[in-house]
Design goal:
By secondary structure, this protein is an alpha+beta fold. It has a domain of 61 residues. It contains three helices and two strands, in the order ααββα. Strands 1-2 form a two-stranded antiparallel sheet. β1 and β2 form a beta hairpin.
Length: 88
């Protein structure tokens, strides 16, 4: 995932989202975990839990995703082209 030389931020984001969706759809939790840094944060804004919450830590994020995916299947991740694009 770190070999991104010459790749645009938008392309990296699209690739990450595709990997994330594939891992979630397959319930491949090691692959989901590999997409998150151990000290990262996930801001759920009503998407999975119907409340605004922040989850900190890669393992904690995976645990939260596991607990919600049975109730809220996910697919079609993409960035909104009308919004500010991802940046470094």
């Amino acid at each position: 995932m770190l070999d991104t030389a010459g790749e645009s931020i938008s392309a990296m984001t699209a690739r990450w989202l595709a990997q994330f969706e594939a891992a979630l759809t397959a319930a491949d939790w090691p692959a989901v975990s590999a997409l998150f840094h151990p000290e990262c944060h996930w801001r759920d804004v009503l998407a999975l839990s119907w409340k605004i919450q922040t989850v900190s830590g890669g393992a904690e994020i995976v645990a939260a995703l596991k607990s919600h995916l049975g109730h809220a299947p996910v697919s079609g991740f993409e960035t909104d082209p009308a919004r500010t694009p991802p940046r470094r």
